[in-house]
Amino acid sequence: MAINDYDADATELLETYDFLMKYIIIGEAGTGKSCLLHHFTHNSFKEHSQHTIGVEFSSRTVKLGEKRIKLQLWDTAGQERFRSVTRSYYRGAAGAILVYDITSRASFANLSRWLADARALGSPNLVVVLVGNKSDREDEREVEWAEASRWAADHDVHFLETSSLTGDNVEAPFLLCARSILLSIESGALDPEKAGSGVSYGDRALRRVNSSSRLSFGSLSVGRRNRGSTRLKLKDLVPGTSNSRCC
Ligand SMILES: Nc1nc2c(ncn2[C@@H]2O[C@H](COP(=O)(O)OP(=O)(O)OP(=O)(O)O)[C@@H](O)[C@H]2O)c(=O)[nH]1
Ligand SMILES: [Mg+2]
């Protein structure tokens, strides 16, 4: 093999996302936040889920149209005793997945408080998706879809129901939130270069590793380098979205 062939083989994509977005997952204890997130990142139900202590972090890269988006996911504890700790992670969030349990009216009754905290501390353009989880337990339902949908409309948030157990709809809240944030960027309402926006440009860098293990970066941030070409096209955000699992 010629030396140039080695060079070509050693070129690999290091960072391949266009945007990095910070999400928080919030809501009362036991509503299924950790299970929802686990299904989204691992494509399976999280057996024997325990109460979250403080905050847990995970991530996944998704594809919306032409854009690759890395989601930083902060799963927060719902228990009251962790409230002051978890609130400190709300700062600068671009998206909030607000979860209640459709079989628990109590978890629905407290939504306003969770929303108020998120709006007070998150990004000024915070996108919120209300999620009624445990839709598989229809027989024990205490909160009707129509009532939750009205609440969502009144509070200007998106809404859908999911089941972390069956996997039904588990991707939708995360993708809906990302799409809404992308549209804010497209409209100019949200500037990823502004501190506290909860979104930043990703570095689409190429890593070239030569035989002496020297690293060099082939490109700078797409956003900063080609500022004029970073505006999204609405056609990129067509409903036929696809995902790639990653961390
Ligand atoms: N039937 C059903 N059970 C679920 C579902 N999602 C979660 N659970 C169960 O609900 C319980 C709580 O789930 P968690 O994901 O740990 O709840 P959480 O909201 O993260 O709770 P905290 O970490 O304390 O805030 C567990 O026993 C799960 O097995 C679901 O979609 N359907
Ligand atoms: Mg949890």
TrEMBL record:
GO cellular component: membrane
Keyword Cytoplasm appears in the UniProt entry: no
Chief subcellular location: membrane
Protein keywords: Membrane, Nucleotide-binding
Localization (cell): Membrane
Record keyword Membrane present: yes
Molecular function in Gene Ontology: GTP binding; GTPase activity
InterPro entries associated with the record: P-loop_NTPase, Rab_GTPases_membrane_traffic, Small_GTP-bd, Small_GTPase
NCBIfam families in alphabetical order: small_GTP
Family listed: Belongs to the small GTPase superfamily. Rab family.
PANTHER family linked: DRAB11-RELATED
Protein name: Ras-domain-containing protein
Organism: Jaapia argillacea MUCL 33604
